[in-house]
Amino acid sequence: MADPRSVPRRDAFAKVTGRAIYSIDSALPYMAHAAVVRAERAHGEIVDIDHAEALAAPGVLGVVCGSDLVGISPLFGHIIPDHPILAIDKVRYFGEPVAVVVAETVQQAQDAAATVWVDYTDLEPLVDADTSLASDLLIHTQSYTGPEGGFLGIQAKDTSGNNVAHEVALGWGDVDTAFADAHVVVENTMFFPMVYAYAMETYNAIADYRGNSLHVITTGQHPVMVRRELARLFALPLAAVRVEVPLVGGGYGSKSYTKLEPLAAVASRAVGRPVQVTTDFEAAINTTRADGAEITMRTAFDVDGTILARDADIILDTGAYADNSPLVLAKCANRCFGPYRVPALRVRGRAVYTNTTPASSYRGFGAPQGALSGEVNLDMAAQQLGIDPVDLRRRNLVAPGETIMPGKRPMDADLLADMETVAEALFEHTLIEEPGIRRGRALALSASDAGASPVSTAMVRMHADGSATLLTGSTELGQGSNTVLAQIVARELGLDIDQVAVGQSDTLFTPYEWTTGASRTTTITGLAVQAACQEIWSKLRALHSQTQDVDPDAVTIVDGALLVDGNMTSPRDVICSWFGADAGEVTGVGVIRKSGMTEALPPFWEVGMVGVEIAVHEDTGEIDIEHLVLVGDVGHAINPDLVKGQDLGAATQGLGCALWEELLYEGQQLTNPNLVEYRVPRFRDMPRRVTSVIAERGDGVGPYGAKGGGEGAINPIPAAVASAVAQAVGVWPDRLPLNPQRVWELLEAANSSGGPN
Amino acid sequence: MTTTTTTITFNVNGRDVEILVAIRTTVAEVLRDVLRLTGTKVSCEIQVCGACTVLVDGHPVSACSMLACDLDGTSVTTIEGLSQGLDLHPIQEAFVETNAFQCGYCTPGFILMTLSLLQDDPRPSSETIREWLDGNICRCTGYAPIEQAVFVAIRRLNEAEAADG
Predict the structure, then answer these.
(1) How far apart are CA A383 and CA A399, in angstroms?
(2) Mean pLDDT in each 10-residue stretch from start to end of chain A (757 residues)?
(3) Residue A21 distance to chain B (closest CA, Å)
(4) If 0-12 CB within 10 Å is exposed, 13-18 middle and 19+ buried, where does residue A393 land?
(5) For testing the chain A interface, which of B36, B41, B87, B102 should be mutated: the one with the most A CBs within 10 Å?
């Protein structure tokens, strides 16, 4: 029997008939097209750009280079404004935009772009974090500190002197004494490769710059953040910058913050027409990837397996520009040590500039990288201590209400109960023995300080027939937010779901929404929607008291109607009576800020709780996922099917990171910027069996006890797979992805060492 | 002077069209940019992701990599041609019913590949389904809901056939 809460998605008809509109399907009248000339070395000084031939080519309207970025702020970056819209004097990664050619058609623009000649003086490319840290050569020689920098309390640092883009330090307690007194110390270093989120709608944007205004249509997750940055770059009031986001063809965090929008805007500014900029697969990777990580974790244990201290060192390969990586680093630091009682902690993290494509957010936001080292470290410890890995976690997990980070919201989840649910499903049978197959299984977990900033405004308009329109700046990425938020409106106003419309994110019309990320929409936007509906009711009471000429306190609300002296009146009749016609509407605005229930940060801890059973083929090193176990601890599921969809989708991306995905540099150039060699999970890779459970204990701060989901399931998957491989093969892997070749090498290593270590 | 354009005549979703195209123009460009049939989506551009799948004379092809001039004399079905007005095709209904999409960008390609599969084999085995759909990438769902949609569609189509027969 289907759960009645799992109403069909609102975008279903559009998406199965090809009538859904994405940014890439959009067009503006008199629109021209751009082609981007990209750097053909990873590190070099620009000596000369010759674009005479391009300018004279058929259909070409203009060519823009870094030297043309005058009269505007040429550097973007919401934390560290280090990123030139087009390379200025220097290129810092292979594929960096150097010039943009604008023409009547895409083909004309591309043909002309191929004739642009750039002359460089080569600099040594620093293509990995270790090389970059050790080098005296600086990728950025300029300091970006200043009043424009800084975001969420993170200040741009003076980068002069080294290639560290950002540094964090976190900790408490006497770490060194704890390690000195420890019964067992376990240390491991894990390498998490740079990966690419591959949203199938690759980055694209249309911009229409008109001197005193700028209109942008983009496939971005955070329209108001993009608006803020564009307003700063072009010295325009926020109100003069309109950022419209149609349906988004995949985001997963990779479309957070500003990407191609400034490039489209400078192209439009140059030719005085709307301009569309698009990317192919390779150019999309050259726009943003996720941070690679090398994390060393040391943990001190008492004889009974109690954690005494943890000490972590994080190095992120952040690429040529910082983008959101300083925040990814801060979150990785918060998320690497796990939701355990850690009496003494020391985390040092550095985000390092390299001459590679810039890195930024990706689903999980530092947690998959952090949990890989942190959780595998616990499993190694369990082996050394002779304690069952689940039991080791039982001894150290925090209880509901316990604090894992001083000053942060206490744990709002029953992690122990969630873990028992996974363990029960994962260990229900003994592993089947089969010649040529080695099996392993492991569970892993994480808790993320999610929800981002609790700043949200929602507006609900109740029409004269009692139906309602919701305006929210939250973007529909496919997660189903337009469906879930409509369900909240329907429930609050006593309406049928078909009586609720949801507007598309557009800064000209929709109210302020911090971001669509950090798994926050159902919780934070949901609270704003609830508050907006409450204001509708209080306004309806006021209107009804005026028409009935009674005190507002005499009006009560019962079963979706207004009651005075035993007489029930529908909202529709209240509105029509007050306006004196079948006309008018009542608007409710709900505002959420860091106050009251959302005063304590994070707004919620997002739980990742998974188990995997794998089968390793001895002759090929291939891995089958035999059983995937997911517990989505979301407090309350407003739409259970959508929750499970998020969990399986996130877990599948985690499997991609664990088993196949890795951007490979050979020298200064990416060797696999295509979907053949950058392998993502495919239909045949589906786990043989999936157990997906939703934990609903009403312990979230959001509507009806809800809290966020959508990222949790990706976070511990790479760690669980790595530990399961270790169990199956007998050697602890130190890097991902665990592709057939690497697993085969582990098998060889196990054979030569004479058995499990 | 080398010829760089050609006139092609073909049928798309029951409509006859005659257009002048540059020889290098792809099917996807003609469908999306000229005919404004934007339901056909382009992503990997090298015939791996399947998002741009359309049917040409009933066979699935990658619209990103086929030249438009080769459409001359053919009959093309795109995602827009599948429903009868507001009445969804049973495969579309099945995708709605099982939440077989999130962002929806890959959905037109999956639906058309499923149609092609079920026209070839109305009762495919799980292995056949996996073989056919392995050439379509979905980055959101983890595929299980799509597999479920195919099972539902098979049941619907076979029930409809039984009722007709």
Answers:
(1) 24
(2) 90 98 98 98 98 98 98 96 97 98 97 98 97 97 74 68 94 98 98 98 98 98 97 98 98 98 98 98 98 98 98 98 96 98 98 98 97 98 98 98 97 98 98 97 98 96 98 97 98 97 97 96 98 98 97 93 96 97 96 96 98 97 98 98 98 98 96 98 98 98 97 98 98 98 97 65
(3) 8
(4) buried
(5) B102
Phi-psi region of A155 (alpha: psi -120 to 50; beta: other; left: phi over 0): beta
The span from the first CA to the last CA of chain A, in angstroms, equals 48
Domain count, chain B: 2
Flag if A480 and B102 touch (Cβ within 8 Å).
Answer: yes
DSSP B8-70: EEEEETTEEEEEEEETT-BHHHIIIIIS--TTS--SSSSSSS-TTEEEETTEEEETTTSBGGG
Residues 72-91 of B with CB under 8 A from A: 78-80, 82-83, 88
The yes/no answer to whether this complex scores an ipTM above 0.95 is yes
Q: Domain A397-448+605-757, what architecture?
A: 2-Layer Sandwich (3.30)
Selection from B24, B10, B89, B23 nearest residue B57 by Cα: B10
Domain A13-125+198-285 matching CATH 3.90.1170.50: the answer reads yes
Selecting from A11, A281, A690 the residue whose C-beta is nearest the C-beta of B45 gives A281
Same fold, A397-448+605-757 and A456-598: yes
In A, residues 136-195, which contact B (CB 8 Å cutoff)? none
